Amino acid sequence: MAVLRKPKLLDLLLRSIRLCGWDVLLLSGREDHPFHLSVFKGDSRRQLRIYIWNLTHGGYPRDPNEFRIQITGVGALELDAEMQTLLLGWSSDKAVFAGFDAVKHLHPGISPSIQIKRPALEKALTDGFSTQPRFNDEIAVAFRPDFFMSYVLGAERLHQTKRAPEESKVLEKAIVSEVEEGDFKDLPAGERREVIQTITRKIRDARFRANVLRAYDHRCCMCGLQLDLLDAAHIIPVEHSRGTDETKNGLSLCALHHRAFDHALVTVQTDYSVRCSEKSFGELRKIGWDGGEKEFRTMLRDQILLPPKRELYPAPDYLKFGQEIRSWAI
User: Fold this and answer.
1) CA gap 304, 251 in Å, rounded
2) C-beta separation of 175 from 162 below 8 A
């Protein structure tokens, strides 16, 4: 099992955050630990203080299914209102993170070892996310790198299962599947419910993006571009009553082709061919806004790249309805 030095763990954190569609700035030195990061996307901003160690097996005679981090090289963990503190482990073997509740481990000298079980790590590898109760009323959370920001957004409440089990239940469901209005019925009305609803919306967006980009091997389905410049585009917008977060309601598109798709300059037909709107381009030519048209058309594939699993293909009825609501015309 590979053991990564702190700079390599930092690089892993930066890649994971960008993989989730967020931008990130390093506020501390590369050799500093904990790492201080600023993450932002649109109007959302957070500052993170991240403690991270490698997950390793405890050795004989410990449980062979038990992995742990050893909190070394730091004193008491820092907590304050200005930064969100994360306490993480990284499994090179499973390529997943484990998150622990920093509040329960403020003084690691008393208990420097924190454990998580192998099944939780394996479930996170296949499902993207999993939880495991620990003996001290803590919930350990395992998650893939493409679910990193989903964890960040819900971490505080996910780890508070003893104090707010109904909230943790909703958040856990939001990370792996769609949350419905009825899922909020057991939450107290008022500000707490509104906060959870806001977080679940952000988690939903992060989960949809992770699932769609993963299905398309992180390539724009219209031009094949990767370069970490991709969006997960809804075919039927999620704001519409027929909109869903199913992968088959999504397309992996680079920023340029996402805008063109939403502006009805280009579309995907039900046979998965890519078509430009001659009407729209004709209107642009009339006003002299057709610069780059030839280059734009040259970039496009005749047919979109498709996921390896047929059940993840864009649904033809979604594609057809998506054209209708965008007023797409040949």
Assistant:
1) 9
2) no
pTM reported for the whole predicted model: 0.70
**What would the two tokens of residue 121 be?**
């790590």
Q: Cα dihedral sign for 240, 128, 147, 226?
A: negative
Contact 154, 174 (CB under 8 A): yes
Alpha helices in the chain (DSSP H): 6-19, 118-127, 148-158, 165-176, 191-215, 255-262, 278-286, 293-299, 316-325
Given a contact cutoff of 8 angstroms between Cβ atoms, the answer to whether 238 and 317 are in contact is: no
Could you tell me if 86 and 159 are in contact, meaning their C-beta atoms sit under 8 angstroms apart?
A: no
Token pair for 154: 């819900």
Amino acid, res. 233: A
Per-residue pLDDT of the chain (330 residues; tens, 9 = 90+): 578 899 999 999 999 998 888 899 999 988 889 999 999 988 889 999 999 999 988 655 667 788 899 888 888 888 888 899 999 999 998 899 999 988 888 777 666 888 899 998 998 888 777 888 777 677 888 988 988 988 898 787 777 655 556 666 676 676 666 666 666 666 666 655 666 666 677 777 778 888 899 899 999 999 998 887 888 999 998 778 888 888 999 999 998 999 999 888 999 999 999 999 898 888 888 898 888 888 999 999 999 999 999 999 999 999 999 988 888 767
What DSSP character marks residue 286?
Answer: H
Q: Provide the H-helix boundaries in 27-147.
A: 118-127
In 3D, which of 94, 69, 78 has the Cα closest to residue 35?
Answer: 78
CB of 76 within 8 A of CB of 145? no
**How do strand 44-54 and strand 84-91 relate by DSSP bridges?**
parallel
Give the H/E segment covering residue 84. Answer: strand 84-91
- Give which of 104, 197, 210, 216 is closest to 150, Cα–Cα: 210
